[in-house]
Structures are given as C-alpha cells and as structure tokens.
Design brief:
four-stranded antiparallel beta sheet, about 20% strand
Length: about 450
Amino acid sequence: MTLPDIVTRPEAAVPVVATSDAVVVGGGPAGVSAAVSAARNGLSVTLVERYPYLGGLASGGMVLVLDDMHNDTEISVRGQAMEIIDRMHAKGLCVYPSEADRDPAVRATEDMWRKWSRWGVFDFHTHTKPHPVIFAAAFDPEGFKQASLDMVREAGVNLRLHSWFQSTIVEDGRAAGVIVETKEGTQAIRGSVVIDATGDLDVAASANAAFTEGAYIVTTVSRIGGVDTDEAERFQFEEPERFAEIDRQAKRIINGSWQYWWLKTPLPGVVWCNCPHMVGFDGMKIADLTGAEIEGRRRMKALLEFARENMPGFAKAFFVDFAPQTGVRQTRLLDGEYVVTKRDVMDRVHFHDSICRGRDYYTPYRALLPKGVEQLLIAGRHYSATPQAQKLSREIPPCMAMGEAVGIAAAQALGSGVTVREADVRAIQKQMRAQGADPGDRPADNALVAEAA
C-alpha cells in the first residue's frame, strides 16, 4: 500500500494563554536582554523559550567566554551584558582579568599570557604574539542560567519555558503574537510588539519577512573533568616543542578547532572544548543536526582517548557533559531595512542610527527592522547582515546589546503611540546610556562616519 506524502490537519481554535505589550521569542542572551529591558522600561512582557532553561548558546550551547566587548582598552559593551557578568562573578562562577592585568604596559607580556591565555581572554584579532590580555569573561553555564532567571524574575517578566515556537500571528501586515506548541497543546500568545530572538529568524521567516541564508561551522561543545590544569599549563610553557607536537596530533583528531582546543572554566579541574569545528552541516536540517551530534561525539571520544595517553594533566580526564544545544553559528539572516556588510564591520562604519556596539563596530537600528512586517523587531545573530559580516559580529555580548536596545525601542514606540519602525532613535540611544549601556551614538576616533539617511 502506498502511503500519501501529505497529512492534512483540520484548522483548530487555539486558546490565547497570555497577552502582553511585548512578546519575546527565544530565551537566549539576546532574548533575555530584550525581555528584561522592555520590562524595566514599563512594558508587560512574555518570554517564550523551548528549553527548560534560559541562556541559549551561552548556557545550553556552552559558549563559555563572553568576548567581542572591548575596543583596545575600552569596554565597548556594557549594560545588561556587564550586569550578568557581575552577577555570575559575585557567585564565583565568572572569571575575568583585573584592570591592572589589562594595563597597556603589561597586558601583552609573557607573564600575562601565561596567566590568562588558557581562560580565552585575549585579543586573537592581533597579529603580534603574545596576544594582549583584554576584558572578556570565562563563566560557568549554570551560572548564566541562574543569573538570567534572576534578572527575568526580578523584572516581572511572564516566563513560559517548554514552549516551542510554531508560527507568527500576522494581522493586517502586523505581527500580533505567536503560536507555540506545548505539552498542554497548541497555544497562542498575543502582543503589541513581537521580538524575534530565536537565532534562526524563525519568527520573522514565519511572518514572510525577507531573509537570506548562510552557513558556517557547527560544533558539539563539551566539558572535560579530572584535568590537572596546572600540569597541563606547565607542559605547554616548559616543554614547548613536545607540547607543540602533541597538540598538532590532537588537532588532527579534532579536525577543526580554534588556537586552543581546551580552555579553563571557573570549576576546578573542568575545561571546556569549543570543538570540533564541522563543515557541511545545515543548522536548519534535522538530518544534518543529528549527523553533527554523532560526528562531534565520535571525534571528541577519540580526542579524549588520545589525551589520556599522551597529554600531561589529562591522564584521569573524563567527559562531564556535552552541550544540550548544537553550536550553530549561522542560518537565516534578516534582509532588513539596512544590511550590514563586511566592509561596514572592518572599516568601523558609524551610522546615524547606531543603537549598540560590538568590539569596534556599530549596529544601526535599521538592521533590526524587517521590511514589510510591522511591530516586529530582531535581536541576535540573525540580524540584517551579509554572511561575511555576521561571522565577524555574532558574539554573545553584542547580541545582548541588540536585545537591550530593542527592548527600549518597543517601550519607546508603544509609549509614544507609534510603530517600532517610527521609534525615536535618539530616545533609544539616550535610554541605553541611562541604563549604563553604550549605544554607539558617539563614534570612536578610528570610526568611519556614514552619511545620514
């Protein structure tokens, strides 16, 4: 018997389980920041997340260094990104270099490199070695989850975990809420503004907003325990030739990694491995995501066996866990009112409507606005940029800054009785500064100022 290729489902009435001023879809760093920012600015907010925790790729994906938030010696991303760092640091679950260790007189010395390089808090963009120590933060994933939950709860956000986004409610060309799938069945959540913080542009794509598609490496991140990090670092610095050979062999097994395939974490004896880097996997396809999980674990199992036998400090090593979220870096990208280019990022182009910063680049408000859909804002790695530009501007702190900015934008627009497309950019910039964030409204000396629109 030949089975049909399509199953037809009858239309069903979907109960509305929540109504708020703003609906944020995606509880990753950008979504948490957007929800908290909107709530602190007076809006009622519902935050929807499919996993049983907050933090997205920072916690569930275990991307355990917050970087891309400095411009030479200046900290360029502040606001809620710094707040979450401070909260984790207060619990002993976050480590970063002191201001003294970041002093230009010492930050590029061998002593500082030996002290801080295995924390991943160095400027890998520089061509000189040792790379200078910068402000970046190594953290524990559970610390990020708890700090995110505390911020969301304290702000009075209506949090709905275990809710899987299904589709966007669009009425007369305006995003008016979302449909989610849950253990209780299909549910609707209505809002005056919808913020897409999904990372894959799920909400905007469902609303038929224009987008492009890109692809980049994917990773099954893991943590390894039982490591004598003192001995491992001693080996690296005191036996450099032998270390280099063993490290080369390890990287051949991984078949794709950054300069350091393991970095320290705030937990003693626990290191994290942001590898292997795997190409040819589409983060939007189930078969590819499944294949990446299988292949990543295969490579890391072989690596651990090699490290136990050959690397000083790893003799008693074991896997603590693999990240519950696959490390997907790029899928759909918004084709918004402005598309940020690689040249914009490389030349540090400053825009009249810059509302947040990254390392030394600026994000215009227009890059967070879809074309053709009203009352919809974007925050996160799926913002409007070319694939080449996104690879250089997709780190977690800048995405949190985007979230903080669009949360303010939603409140400013609703408070003024205008659409988010008509929001007052100067008011957004002013409120970002009032919250301790840097909207990028003041171009740095090395910035290239774009012509006003």
